[in-house]
Amino acid sequence: MTKKELRKQMKQLKEAMLPDVKEVEADIVFYTIARMPVWKQAQHILCYWSLPDELPTHDMVNRWLKAGKSIYLPRVKGDNLEIVPYHGAESLDDNNKFHIGEPVGDAVDPSCLELIIVPAVALDAQRNRLGRGKGFYDRLLSTTHCPTIGVSCDFQLVNEVPVEEHDRPLDCVVTSDAVIADDEKKALFT
Hints:
This protein has 6 helices and 12 strands. By secondary structure, the chain is an alpha/beta fold. The chain has a single domain (3-180), classed as NagB/RpiA/CoA transferase-like (Rossmann fold, 3-Layer(aba) Sandwich). Strands 3-2-1-6-9-11-12 form a 7-stranded mixed sheet. Strands 8-7-10 form a 3-stranded mixed sheet, covered by helices on one side. Strand 1 (44-46), helix 4 and strand 2 form a beta-alpha-beta unit. The relative contact order is 0.18.
């Protein structure tokens, strides 16, 4: 299956998913992450402000912020993602090309990050990720060295995600039914 075909298939499945089911899956995924050693040790965490077809993060991001974590969200600048501190929903602006809630303020150096949580269109057991096709996260992840976790609904975990040379596998994949970690880094996630 090509990336384009897989994106189309996932779009249809996501459209059929009930919002309550998606909320339950998100709660399980983010509860699982919050119990991981890597999350407990990390102070500076990059997450994402979810779009309607992604695992919802709005409540979780605010809970983690209240728990004392420094939360960062991505902001699109040209072909790249900037990393910007998140200070609450009132500090977001959706007046941008993609109409995505993005944080306002000064960008920080991604080297401060200790954990990156990445949304996915599809994931596989080899920890490969299919994104939306713009390469934003691929470019960001190629410049960082902290642990990465891809998150999705269970049905988005597929047998094989098509990969290209620039695609970088994640360190861990989490769905409501699965935690798949790189063997060499397993202690961070279990």
